[in-house]
Amino acid sequence: MLWPQAAGGTNSQRPAMRVVVIFDKNTDKKSLHTGWGISFLINNNILFDTGENGAWLLKNAKCLQLDINSLEAAVISHDHWDHTGGLWEVLAERKGLKVYACAGFSPEFKERVRVAQGALIEVDKVTEISKGIFASAEIAGTYHGQYMPEQALFIRTEKGLSVITGCAHPGIVKILEKAKESFGDSRVYSAFGGFHLMESDKRAIEIVAGRFKELNVTKAGPTHCSGRAAEDIFKKKYGDDFIALKAGEDFNI
What we know:
Structural class: alpha/beta
Number of helices: 7
Largest sheet: 7 strands, mixed
Helix content: 25-40%
């Protein structure tokens, strides 16, 4: 099923959206906490992943003058501590917040969301959660030989299609291909987040970066589990179109 009409008209009718990096392993701002995991705020109302530590996440949000009470939903990419760690403090502040999860997440995660009075939503297909913002639904991946369900965010704006990933355990290229197939787009304006390439050799990373170009990805921003080698290779290949992600940064997609 293709989604361009369901998202509300042509790209030119969709305004750009602001992305704020609330949490990451790097920052240029001394007032912000850094650590393992990522957290992005999209369009001031959708939280994607929550980093490893809730107190740090909330402190960063406060320092960046972001209002947690404006959140409409939290989308969790996958059930790992460095992506769910801050969720519980967020739910303590925003009881009843919608939490979009994969059906394959652990029973323990789902029960904890319910106990924290979050509104758990298990996504089983590409789902529009806010205007122009879609949860990809579960994409099959593996981690240390075990099945790992993961979802990404697909976002439609005037600039085109953007893809945000947590760790990309299913494979970042596989996720990009699903995004393009879901929307019938010939190009992706941006793809950023964790690409899970830190254990890959340089030759394998070069192949992935080459596939980005073949898939017409205009801007790329690897961080978190992507690894230093991947960040260097993508920066060299993308030049001015490389997205340098650090806590406290914000940009439009």
